[in-house]
Amino acid sequence: MLYKDGIPTQEQIKSCFPEETILLRPKAIVECYEEIPCNPCSTSCPFSAITIGENINNRPKVDFSLCTGCGICVFSCPGLAISVAQIIGDQVRFKISYEMLPLPASGEIWTAVNRGGEIIGQAKIEKVTLGKAQDKTALVQVLTDKKHLYDFITIRSRI
Amino acid sequence: MINRDLVIIGGGPAGLCAAKMAAEAGQKVLIIDRNPRLGGQLIKQTHMFFGSEEQYAKTRGFNIAQKLIDDLGAFPDLVEIIVNATVVGLYSDRVLSVLQDDRYFKIQAKVIIVATGASEKVLAFENNDLPGIYGAGAVQTLMNVYGVRPGHKVVMVGSGNIGLIVSYQLMQAGVTVSAIIEAAPKIGGYKVHASKIRRLGVDIVTSCTIKRAEGKDSVEKIVTVKLNDQWEEIPESEKVYEVDAVCIAVGLTPLINLLAMVGVNLKYIGELGGLVPVVDENRETSLTNIFVCGDASGIEEASSAIVEGGIAGLAASEHLGKTHPRHQELLTAYHQQLETLRNGPFGEKIRAGIKKLGGNVHAL
Amino acid sequence: MRINQHPILCFEQKAQCPFTFNGQSVYGYEGDTIASALHALGIKKLSESSRLHRPRGFYCAIGNCSSCNMIVNGVPNVKTCITLLKPGMIVVSQTNKGEIHD
Question: What ipTM describes this predicted complex?
C-alpha cells in the first residue's frame, strides 16, 4: 500500500502506462500518485507532452501522442518518479534515473529490482548519459525481459 | 553601538530573499548569521527541490543557496554580511546584541527581519542522550557539508519528508539504512520519496516506535516496539536493530528565542510546529518594524521561506522609505505563490494552522 | 568515516589541521568543525553530562542544542558543532557546567 510502505498497487502502476501498442515507441511513465506542489516535469518537456496546469498541485498528465520518450523529464523530476519504457520484441527498454555510486557502464549486466526493492531478474546496461544539464542525475538505458514491464523500476548491483 | 537601518537575522533562504528584495528596492541591509557561511539549511540539501520555477524547482538545495548568495553580489554597496556572529539579544528599542568570537557588540536598527529558522525536535525514549543519536538534519550536515559518515548502519525514526530524504542521502553516502520506523499508521512525507527509498531495499515500518537505545559510550543497538491504533505499545512486539547511529526525524520547531525576548505576540499552534509569532500579511509582528519570515514563523518548506522572505524584504524596505519599483506587482505574485504552494492536500495542515493563528497581531 | 566519493557532491582534499583531544595528538582538515573532525576520527563521545556523567555527543549539529559543548583552548561551553577547527586547538571534554579562570 503506497501510504504504508511506499509501494503502489499493480492497478496504480498500470494506470500510468499506455496500451502496449503505444509502447512500441518510447514513452514516459510518470508515477506521481499524489497532489504535491511541483511542476518541473511539465516545464522541462520540450514537446509539451506533460500537463499540470496553473494549480501546480495537480497530478501530471501525459499526452502519449506528443511524447517522444526523450527522457528529459526523467532527470528533471525531483521525486525521481519518471522512467521511459519501450517494448522491443520480447524485451523492454527502460530509461531510468540513477544517483548512486558506482555508476553502471555500457555492456554490464546488473540485477533488476522491483518497487519493493526485491531482485526480480537481470538488466543489460545499454547506455549511461550524465551531461551537465542533468546536474548529477544520470540517465541509464537498460534492456530487460518484457515480463518485467510492470515490475521493473531500477538496478541495484553488477552481476 | 553601530547603527544600521535594516538588519536581517539569519542568512538562510528566507533571510537571503528578504535581503535581495530590499537591495533591489535600493535599501541598505545587514545580514547576520551565526554559521561560518550563508545559506542556512539549503547548503546541505543535495536533492532537487519541488515547487515551481519561481522557487527554483528542479534545482538542488545547495545550488539554490549559491544562486541566492550570488544574486546579492549584484549589490556590493548595499549588502553587508557578518558571519560567525550570533545575535544573543533583541530588545524592544530595536537594539541587537551580537557575539562574535570574543567580541560582544551592539547594533541599533530601525527595522529588523527575524529569519532564524527552526530547530529539530527531540524524541523521548530511554537513553535518548547517547552519542550517535542525532537529529536527521544533523546527519545531513555531517555528511553533506563536512563529508563525514554518521556511522555504518543506521535506523531512521520518522517518515516525514526529512526522514525519507535523509535516508536516501545516507544510502548515497554509502551508509546502510536498516529501516525507517514511523509511529503513525501511514508514511508522513511525499510518497515519491518513500518509493525512491523502497526501491533501494530499505524497509519502512509503520505503527512502530523506538523504545530504548543501548550502548556504552555511544549507541550500539536500539529496541523498537509496535503500536496499536490507540498508539499503545503492543506487548511482545519488540525488535532489536544493531546500529551505530540513529537519526531522529520527528519534526521541527520554530526558533523564536529572540522573538520571545523582545516580546512580540506569540501563539502556540501545533500545526505550525510550536510557538509562532502572530504576523500580518506583510510579515510584521505585533511590534512595529519587527518582521519574521521562513521557518521561524511556522514550519513549512524552503519554497515558502523564499516567498515569505521576499514579502518581508519588500515590506521592510517600504517602511524605510525605499519602495521597490515593482512593489505591488511582486507582493501580489508572492501571495499568489504562497496560496498555490499551500493549496494541495499537504498544505492542509499549514492552512489550518494559519487560520488558527489569525492575522490580528494584537489579539491575545 | 570520511566520504571520498559521492554521486552528487565533490569533497576536495584539504590541508591537514593538527589539534589535541584530551591530550592526544590528532588531526582534522581545513573546513572541519571541531565536532566533525572528531567524528571523522570515530570519536562520538565528546563530553559528559555535568551531574550524572553520562556520555554526551552532538545532536543538532547546527548550534541549537548545546549537546556538543567542550572546553576549547581553556574556554568552556564552546559549541563544537559550529566552531571551525584551527591548527593547534586544545580540545578537552567538559564534565561540569564550565569554570571560568581569569
Answer: 0.96
